[in-house]
Amino acid sequence: MNVIVINSGSSSIKYQLFDMPEQRVIVKGLIEKIGLDGSRIKHKNERGETLLIEKNIPDHQTGIGLLLALLTDKENGCLKDISEVDAVGHRVVHAGEKFSGSVPVNKEVIEALESCIDLAPLHNPPNLEGIYAVTELLPDVPQVGVFDTAFHQTMPEHAFLYGLPYELYEKFGVRRYGFHGTSHRFVSRESCRLLNMDPEQSKIITCHLGNGASIAAVKNGKSIDTSMGMTPNEGLIMGSRSGDLDTGVLLFIANKEDLSIAQTSNLLNKKSGMLGVSGISSDMRDIEIAAEQGHRRAQLAMEMYAYRVKKYIGAYAAAMGGVDLIVFTGGIGENDILTRKRILSGLEFLGLDFDEPLNEIKGKFARLTKQGSKVVAAVVPTNEELVIAMDAHRIITSQR
């Protein structure tokens, strides 16, 4: 089965074509600067060659149309005819409380996702643009929606509610939803497979650390808590997001600086986090270089980042009544040796025996604790696109 996986952003579309159930990536690429000057496609074909195609791409439908043409191109394509596409899987950021798992896309699903736009105004509209485009261009091809929020729908009410008037939850859906659910689901199960553990009998803390970052407590295969909230701004300090913040501070700053709601949102999401503290960059690599050169605020930002992750690990270990496994994934989690060391050092009280030489690894699976360690720590590269392809294959196959 040929499954196209599409991740539509506001001005970009990431895509991969999978051969399922073999899980083989046939082609992949990025359509970028949609609706902007300099729009182009970076496409890696079946032979492993990277093509750069610069072309005017005014909207998502045009971009997906160009993708489909590439797949069937005589020279660089991999399909004889577009009818060989069996399914399309979409990443959708926010499904609210509508769905607790991946679902076939139909009129009712689209309407439900449209009703969630207020909850994710920056993410859901472009995600829906991808669905609209495929519906128009491939009307007979089944589509599946895979939601970032779905995995966290197993959180109990006492974990997802805020200490606000209950009526605000009833009227507007104000609650913790959590994000990166596809990644947390994948690495929690993949780590158990690699370490020969039973996910249904394990207490796992998954740390998805990238420019956006979140932690989840996964008990016996289900998410019971996660650090991101109603929006992706809550929780850890991130590249340019503040993370946890006293709401009184927010009101104080908005009043002192005479900020509008839009300006306040921009401050929290675009100017804060590692960028705001360090004054250098939102990229951890740049901050680490500056810290090594003695830049005080860069050093402080790194200390704050590791401290916040470590604090959440302790909190989630308490919430689950212990922890068996701590998993690192995402760009920072998979590649940043120093940050992992800062986080794992000092967790001996949990029964974690950190092995520093094993930590000298980037971008691939590795165990980070010594044999006999009561709590295991590991690096497990995430693969959200594969999860989407697997869900699409499973759902479409079950309908046949």
Verbal overview:
This protein is an alpha/beta fold and 400 residues long. It has 2 domains: 2-147, Nucleotidyltransferase, domain 5 (2-Layer Sandwich); 197-379, Nucleotidyltransferase, domain 5 (2-Layer Sandwich), CATH 3.30.420.40. The protein contains 14 helices and 14 strands. It has helices at 60-71, 107-114, 124-137, 157-160, 166-172, 181-195, 247-257, 261-270, 273-278, 284-292, 296-320, 330-335, 337-344, 384-399; strands at residues 2-8, 12-19, 24-32, 40-44, 50-54, 87-92, 103-104, 143-147, 203-209, 213-219, 222-226, 325-329, 366-367, 376-379. An 8-stranded mixed sheet has the order 5-4-3-2-1-6-8-7, with helices on both faces. Strands 11-10-9-12-14-13 form a 6-stranded mixed sheet, sandwiched between helices. A hairpin with a 5-residue loop joins strand 4 and strand 5.
Please give the share of residues in helix: 25-40%
Biggest sheet record: 8 strands, mixed
Using the alpha-carbon principal axes, give the shape: globular
Please give the alpha-carbon distance between the first and last residues.
12 Å
Q: TL;DR of this structure?
A:
This protein is an alpha/beta fold.
Compile the SSE list and pairings.
Elements: E1 2-8, E2 12-19, E3 24-32, E4 40-44, E5 50-54, H1 60-71, E6 87-92, E7 103-104, H2 107-114, H3 124-137, E8 143-147, H4 157-160, H5 166-172, H6 181-195, E9 203-209, E10 213-219, E11 222-226, H7 247-257, H8 261-270, H9 273-278, H10 284-292, H11 296-320, E12 325-329, H12 330-335, H13 337-344, E13 366-367, E14 376-379, H14 384-399
Parallel strand pairs: 1-6, 6-8, 9-12, 12-14
Antiparallel strand pairs: 1-2, 2-3, 3-4, 4-5, 7-8, 9-10, 10-11, 13-14
